[in-house]
Amino acid sequence: MFEARLGQATILKKILDAIKDLLNEATFDCSDSGIQLQAMDNSHVSLVSLTLRSDGFDKFRCDRNLSMGMNLGSMAKILKCANNEDNVTMKAQDNADTVTIMFESANQEKVSDYEMKLMNLDQEHLGIPETDFSCVVRMPAMEFARICRDLAQFSESVVICCTKEGVKFSASGDVGTANIKLAQTGSVDKEEEAVIIEMQEPVTLTFACRYLNAFTKATPLSTQVQLSMCADVPLVVEYAIKDLGHIRYYLAPKIED
Amino acid sequence: KTKQAGIMSFFSKK
Question: Do A40 and B12 touch (CB under 8 A)?
Answer without folding.
Answer: no
